[in-house]
Every structure is written in C-alpha cells, then in structure tokens.
Amino acid sequence: MSEITPLTAGAPGGLEHFDVLIVGAGISGIGAAHHLGEKCPGKRYAILESKESYGGTWRQHTYPGIRSDSDLYTFGYGFKPWTGQPIASGDAILDYLGEAIDEDHIDRHIRYRHEVLSASWSAEEQRWMVTARRTDSGDTVQFSCTFLWMCQGYYRHSEGYTPRWEGMEDFKGPIVHPQTWPEDLDYRGKRVVVIGSGATAATLIPNMADDCEHITMLQRSPTYFWTGENRNELADQLRELEVPEEWVHEIVRRSILKLAKDIQYLSVSNPEVIKEELFNVIRSYLGEDFDMRHFTPSYRPWQQRLAYVPDGDLFEGIKSGKVSVVTDHIERFAENGIITKSGELLEADIIITATGFNLSVMGDIDFDVDGEAVDFSRTFTYRGIMNSGVPNMAFIFGYLRTSWTMRVDLVCDFVCKLLNHMDELQAESCTPTLRESDRDMAIYPWIDEEEFNPGYMQRGKDLMPKRGDNEPWTFSADYYTEREQLPLVNLDDDTLVYRGKARAVAAAR
After folding, report:
1. 218, exposed or middle or buried, with CB in 10 Å at 0-12, 13-18, 19+?
2. Residue 442, CB-side half-sphere exposure with 13 Å CA sphere
3. Which class for 170: exposed (0-12), middle (13-18), buried (19 or more C-beta within 10 A)?
4. Phi, psi of 245, rounded to the nearest 5 degrees
C-alpha cells in the first residue's frame, strides 16, 4: 500500500455527505472502519486525518526506541492476529496498521491532511456539519454526516506537557520533549538528563545509553516496573504445534488477559505481594545492595500503569554504569545542567522532559448543538461512549490499565449495534438524555482517582465529561466489567431519545 493515499476533493456541485464520519486514522479510527465495513456494510463513511498518513500516536512519536508498553496480543485488534514479538517497535505497529488498512480497503475512505476545526449539529436537518482545514493548502472544506465518530485519541499532538522550572532559559543546551523529537538531535558522546520515570523514559534511556557519554533518569517519584523476555512462551508452543495463527492470537490474548486481571485485582487486595514480586525481579538484575528507594513508589501497584521493560534493558543499562537514577526534586536549571533540591548538580548537554501529555478533549474541536456551544465537562458520559445532550456522536476512549485496543473492539461493536438499531427504528438521531430521576444523582470525575491517577488525568480531569451514580451515566474503565455489560445494553431504555419519522420510532418502541 502506498503510505500516503491521494486526497479526494469534495464532490463537484455540492457538499459531500456521509452516513458516518470518523475523525482520526489511528488505532481507534482504523478499528472503527473495520467494524463499520463488517457490521454496517451499507453505510457510506469517510475518515478525516490531520496527519499525512495513518497511525496517530505511532506516527507522531519518533523518539529513539519508540515501542508499545502493552503486549500486541491485546493491544492489537481482536480481528487481526499478531505474529511478532509481544512488545513491538513503533515501525512494526505501523506496518500492522497498514496491513489492516490494506486488507479492508480502508485507504480509499481516508482523507489525509484534513484537520477538523468544528462540528455543528442541526436538529432541523438532523445532521452534523464538519469544518476542516487542509493542512497542505490551508483551504477550508466542509462535510456533512448523519453520525460523527470521534477516534482522535486523548492527548494534544501539537505539544507535550513540560512543567516550568526556574532557570530554564539559562540552560545552554536543547530542552526536548519526546513528543516533538527533533530529527537532527545529536546526542552522541553527550551528557543527557531525562526528567521522568514512566514508559517513555524507560524506553528512551536504554535506547540512547550506548551512544551517550552518560544518561541520568531524574525522577520526582518512582514508577513500578516489570520485565521479562520479549517473547510469549505459550505462543511459541502453539506455533510449534502448527496451531492456526487466528487460534494462537485468541488463546494467547485470553491467557494474557487472565493473568493481567489476577495481577490487577491482587494489587488491590494484597499489594505487598505484588510489590515484593516486582522488586525481586529488579534485584535479580541490580543485586541486593541496590537502593530500592529508586523503584519504590508512594502509591500501590496499578494506581498508575506498570511500565514494562522488555528483556530488562533499563536495568542492564544501570548495571553497566551508562545509566544512573536520581530520585529528587528540581531546584532550578543551570547553564550546564540541573540543580536538585538536595544541592546536587546533574551536568547535562541535553535535557529531555519525559513529563507526560496534555489531555485533549474531543480533539480540541469546537462543538455546538443548534448554535449552543458544547462544554463536555458539563455533560454526563453515557457508558463512556456518548454524551448527554449530544445527538449522533460517539467517541472512543480506551482502557488505561488493560490495553487501549481492548475497548476499541467493544465500543465499535456497540456503535455498530446502535447504528443498525436506528435503521430498524427508522430513526434519524439518537440523543442520550438525563431522566428526571438523574437530575440529583451524585457527580464523579471521569476516572475514579482511587483506582487510577496518572498525572495527565489529574491535570485535565476538570475538562472531561462527568460520571453519575445512576446507570447508564457511568464509566467503569474496567475491561472485565464492560465485556459482560456492553453486549447486553438495552438500546430501547428511556435514556436514549430517538427522533425522525416519529410514528415509526414510537411504534417500534
């Protein structure tokens, strides 16, 4: 497949209209397109993608060693077997997504270099008007659609999150965020400080270490790490038995999910057992004398993601002396590095701020319903898929502990079921709507902070839709709950209000 599909202009003489318009050609948007083609084959759809090619996160991030921090048996699609190493490089993931596009002929539906600016719903016309900017020409173009499906991801692609520290302007070298990695950054023979200790730092550091004079991981607070060989023994055994790849994928996928579920639940009921097991693995690399303070977070396992270190590469770097870990706060930047609160100078030629994302709600797109601006923070989520008061729109927000894509498959099944149900009812729109009994329900943030509290979610929680304590205004963020609940949802309950050809809708309900 050609990496960049040629753009198609609007239909001559009129506005192009689609049954479904998907925003984003990353892992969520490609999954949505597959499910539409399989379960709603009569729907005419298009995908608007701001970048010059598919891939989303995996197209955006180009820092050294970019790789998944989830296994590809669960991070990959349920409908497309994964045959490579469980922890995959960014390039391997892009190849996998490209194959999915090829196999389903999705490329002919994608409009690259289309940055969506606004979306406006008209009750009179029962459709969305979507305005986009062509990033190659600067021209503004419009499309209309019956149903809008937001698959744009959850962070702002244009900039990562970098805190402001005193003296940053005094530092003489480059300060780089991994999300916008310069192509010409030369770190050979240089002293590098990486601020942060999450999955990005754990990937960058071992992949840069051999070329640097020295690299330091400076962390305010530690992260839980786990490691193992970058292979799956069960998958290897099944392939030796010549089991078909579709079976291998499904069996290994279920095995990994079962293990992950057991660990996740044990992290709540008996966190000390999980902590000691994680620490024992690190000690096996670094020895009993290593100061485990550097790998002992203040929170229990799985309140933030466990960062996976394939083949222990980060620990091997520390053991070799090429990598060091400093746990301290930053006092200020200096000309030649960073001064910590304890007074230590960490000399650096380059500073990398692996400090996280800026949360983006619905792609920072301007939404309105009949001329009234939509503030998503004032809406309630309908099962983490739709929003109260917003007609004919769904979005995909994946799991944060289980692989993101496990929720992509579940949400796609739900949306396709809804679209087909609307056709059965001859309904033109569906709007999640609060009942009178919901008006005084308790209000909660998007994610339960006791269960999961990463920094980017804490910083942006006030921007996200709210949860209630009444069904269906909830979002469990738990795969093992939703895989049982979502397929059984009653699409004719009184929280979904259908419009269009009212007599047919009323009769059917």
Report:
1. buried
2. 5
3. exposed
4. -60, -35
Q: How far apart are CA 24 and CA 53, in angstroms?
A: 10
- What 3 state SS string does 86-109 have? CCCEHHHHHHHHHHHHHHHCHHHH
Tens of pLDDT, residues 136-194: 999 999 999 999 999 998 888 888 889 999 999 999 999 999 999 999 999 999 999 99
Does domain 16-157+359-508 fall into CATH 3.50.50.60? Answer: yes
Query: Are 447 and 454 spatial neighbours (Cβ–Cβ below 8 Å)?
Result: no
**Residues of the chain with confidence (pLDDT) below 70:** 1-14, 449-456, 460, 501-509
What stretch(es) of the chain map to CATH 3.50.50.60?
Answer: 16-157+359-508, 168-353
Q: 152 to each of 48, 241, 317, 484, 486, how far by Cα in Å?
A: 10, 40, 36, 26, 22
Fold of 168-353: FAD/NAD(P)-binding domain (3.50.50)
CA 442/CA 378 separation, integer angstroms? 14
184, HSE (Cβ side, Cα atoms, 13 Å): 1
Rounded to whole angstroms, how far apart are CA atoms 351 and 353?
Answer: 7
55 contacts: CB under 8 Å, gap ≥ 6:
25, 26, 93, 94, 97
Q: What are the tokens at 158?
A: 């244009």
Read off the pTM: 0.91
Q: pLDDT for 207-219, tens place per residue?
A: 999 999 999 999 9
**What 3-state class would DSSP assign to 128?**
strand
Q: Which of 109, 128, 32 is nearest to 395 (CA)?
A: 32
